[in-house]
């Protein structure tokens, strides 16, 4: 890690940076494992989205990128053939911060997973 004169970390090294390609594989794997065969039901969507977010979080933490915080957003809706478009935008340090998304759908539901990986300087 690159440090300033006051000892604060200024930038992560190349090996310590979050990589969206690795994040994308994690999102695809977590979505497939938990959502394959699931049917949309209002009663269980809150629990399903929470479990999915926790699974994604655990996998991201296991990457052991120091000084990164993750914001995970899960959007689940009923699949009725209507389609859905979801867009996110952000403003941050393009050298250290990143985002990754994955869209999953089956015959019953759709799910958009969005992860913001934010480097903390403290």
UniProtKB/TrEMBL annotation:
This is Dynein light chain. GO terms for biological process: microtubule-based movement. Belongs to the dynein light chain Tctex-type family. InterPro entries: Tctex-1-like, Tctex-1-like_sf. It comes from the Eukaryota. GO terms for cellular component: cytoplasm; cytoplasmic dynein complex. GO terms for molecular function: dynein intermediate chain binding.
């Amino acid at each position: 890690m690159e440090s300033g004169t006051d000892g604060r970390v200024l930038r992560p090294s190349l090996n310590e940076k979050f990589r969206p390609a690795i994040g994308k594989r994690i999102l695809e794997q977590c979505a497939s494992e938990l959502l394959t065969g699931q049917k949309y039901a209002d009663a269980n969507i809150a629990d399903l989205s929470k479990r999915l977010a926790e699974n994604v979080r655990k996998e991201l933490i296991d990457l052991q990128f120091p000084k990164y915080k993750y914001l995970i957003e899960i959007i689940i809706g009923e699949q009725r053939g209507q389609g859905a478009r979801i867009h996110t935008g952000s403003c941050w340090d393009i050298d250290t911060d990143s985002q990754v998304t994955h869209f999953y759908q089956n015959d019953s539901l759709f799910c958009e997973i969005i992860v913001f990986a934010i480097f903390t300087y403290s």
